[in-house]
Structures are given as structure tokens and as C-alpha cells.
Amino acid sequence: MRAFIDNRFGLLAVVVAVLAALYGLAWVTRPAPAASAAPASAAPRKVPVEAVTAVCPGTKGEKVGVYLPGTLSHETMKSGEPYVAGGPGALEAGYTTRAARGAARGLAGVRCTEPAPATWLLGPGPASASVVLRLTNADKAPALVDVQVHAPEGPVSGDKGVGLEIAPGEQRAIDLRTLAPSADIAAVSVTTVLGRVAVAARAVLETGGVDWLPAAAAPATRVVVPGIPGGGGLRELIVAAPGERDAVVKVRAVSEDAEYAMRGRESLDVPAGGVVSADVTTGLAASAAALVLTSDVPVVAGLVMTGTGEHQDAAFTAGTPSLELGSAVARNGAGSRLVLSAVGAAPGKVRVQVVPGEGAAEPPFDVDVPAGRTREVRLKARGDFAVVVTPVAGEVYGSRVLEERLKDGLLLTVQPLAPARAFTLLPPLTDTPLVVVP
């Protein structure tokens, strides 16, 4: 017996036999499921969110809109410190800045975001714009993040952005020129290694125009870039393949009149770790639209837009989930409209409600979107207001567009309709012995 135990293979056999016996006993004696229990669902479960922390980069003197179901309030930021709003589920917050002249002329809208384990941002690079990251640690514990900049030739920031420490309550501003000065276009990933960090980025183009970069949906083999407003100006698609394999990305447009592959832009080849851009202005023909990207490997995507006139403003949109969980934009004003697209074979329908800063909320109204089409819906409310979009049917994506026409050029900002914080999706749970298998 001792010789058997001394043998490593014999000992392994004993351990395996004992574990198998214990597992078999546990499996045989486990409680039977209740007769009334519902079978496990293969779909994610929609559960309510109990509490929200939303963080906005600070801009002294600007007024933040804070939306809770049925109500809209405003708070003026007294300093340039980060603005942090905490409250129950469904809280939304954000603000818009306006400058009619100067280097940062334009409208710029920002959504207060929750701390996230990873954030992707796509837009102009430091060689064509001043792009400043704002990393905010709103907690009482230190945080650690890694920032990586991807350019057309691949990751270019090296170790410069690795292991950045952010003290409790600190906001850290990082000019992308310090990480990758020569990139014309860029995809930026911010990964939280320790703690909780909220991310924002403001871009001022050298050619004119300013806005905040919206967070892009996580890398996926199907990405929808929604909410491209109709009208003149540049429309430039930016796609990154963050993995170790090259991507072949097929691109289809969902416009007001048709769904189609744009001539000369049917597909894009994206090198592993790199970024490419494609001018889709002619392909969209000034129509409101969404772009649907499918790829053999996960990609992230965004889009740069400019306005018209002597001085051109800039705006950005990015890959965004559908309106399955609903959405809300807390800060809107005169000149606001929704751009909604129904993707897939089924028509879409959403319910829209305007919540003014003063007085009762207006009755909601339904918007039908034909399958494979895009619709623009003008919001006629006056003053500051929140807009709430609730799904009714179909797979619908969208954005809120805010415009102001001046003599020297259009002011423009776009905010993709990000999932509302009222609900979240939890992956399904199954009863399987695989959870104990190494």
C-alpha cells in the first residue's frame, strides 16, 4: 500500500476516485426542483437597477440636467471639478456647452457616465485634433488604469499609458499628444485595473469644431453605428480591430429610403490592432442613417460628422446597443430631434416622452419606423427638457441631435441613445455539472 501511495500516479488516482465519489453522492442527494419551478431561460434576464453613480467632467458655470422618472432638475457647477450624481435606477445626467466664436466654437454635449471596467472611444487623433481624456475616480479608494491608443499602424502608445494611478476623488486629464502625437485617427481603450473610473474625452478639431466623444459599444462581430443626421457636411466612419487577427468588415447603410451596401464602401479591411477610416459622405447622400457593420472578428466603430457653413462644427457618434432597455437624454433644447433606425426584417416602434424642466411631463407619443429605414423626429418642446425613449417593438437604434443655425455655420452635437440605467441584462443561469469541472 505504501509503495502505491508513494507513487505520484497512484496518489492522483486516489484523489480522483474520492472526488468522483463525493460528486456522485452530492448529485444523487441534491434536492429535486420544485414542481412549479419555471424552466431555465436561455435568454438574459431583465432586472431593475437599484442605484446609479453618474460622473461628468466638470465645466465651471455650466448647468447639468438631472433626470429621474417624471422629473427634470438642474444644477450649476460651481467649479471645474467633476460632477457626480448619485441616485436610484433610471437616473440620467448631462450638459451642453455652446460657443459662437473662438477655437472651440460649437455645441458640445456630454452624458454623465458610470464607472466601467473598459471604455472605447473613437475619433480624430492627436495629429488632427486636441483630444483630452478625463479620467475620474469618484470613489474613496485608489484606482489604476491602462490607456492604449490604436492608430492605423496598430497600438502606438506603448507603456506610456500603463499603470496610471488616480487618487480617490481625483480627476486626471491626459492629452493624447503625450501618448501618441502622430495619429490622425485613433481608437482609445481605457481599462480599469483597480477601483472604479469614469471616462470622458473632449476633441477640438484643428479645422474647427468641438464635441465630446461618446463611449463605443464593446468589440463585437456586429456593430450598429446609429443616429447619423441628414444634411450636408463630412461623414467619416472609423473602425478598429483590437484583437490579433485582421478583420474584413462589411458595411450596410440604413437610410430614410433604403437599406443598401454603399458603392465602393461595401467592405473595409482592418489590420489587427489597427484603425481605418472611410469617407461615407457620398454613400449616405445627405440622408439620415445608421450603419450596420458585420465582421469575422470583433471590431469597434465610431463616426465623425461636420456641419456646414463658413465655420464648421463637429460631432461624433459610435457603435451603440439597441433600445431594448430604453434610453433617456437629460439635457435638450430648441433644435433637438431624434434619429431612429429599425434594423432587421421587422418594423420598429418606440414611445417618446418629453419631460420639461418646469411643469408636468407631456403625454407620450408613438413613433413607427419601417423595417430597414431611418426616421428623423423633431422635438417641439421649449426650454430645457429631457427626452425618454421606450421600446415597443422591433430592433431600434438612435441618437439625439441638437442643432443651431448661425450665419457663419451650423452648430451641431449628437448623443447616441445609450441604454437607460433603469434595467440591466443578467446572463442566464443553468444547473450543470460543468461548474465543478476543471
Question: What does this protein structure show overall?
Answer:
The strands form eight sheets. Strands 17, 18, 19, 20, 21, 22, 23 and 24 form an eight-stranded antiparallel beta sheet that branches. Strands 8, 10, 11, 12 and 14 form a five-stranded antiparallel beta sheet that branches. The chain has a four-stranded antiparallel beta sheet with strand order 4-3-6-7, with no helix packed on it. It starts with a helix and ends in a 12-residue tail after the last strand. The longest helix is centred in the N-terminal third of the chain and has 22 residues, at 8-29. It is built from three helices and 33 strands. The protein is globular and about 55 Å long. With 438 residues, the chain is mostly beta strands.
Shape: globular
Task: Report the strand count.
Answer: 33
Rounded to the nearest angstrom, the distance between the terminal CA atoms is 29 Å
Mean pLDDT: 89
Estimated radius of gyration: 24 Å
Q: Please, how many helices?
A: 3
- Ranges with pLDDT <50 over ≥5 residues? 1-5, 34-38
Helix content, binned percent: under 10%
Described by strand count, sense and barrel closure, the largest sheet is: 8 strands, antiparallel
Content of β-strand:
over 45%
The secondary structure category is mainly beta
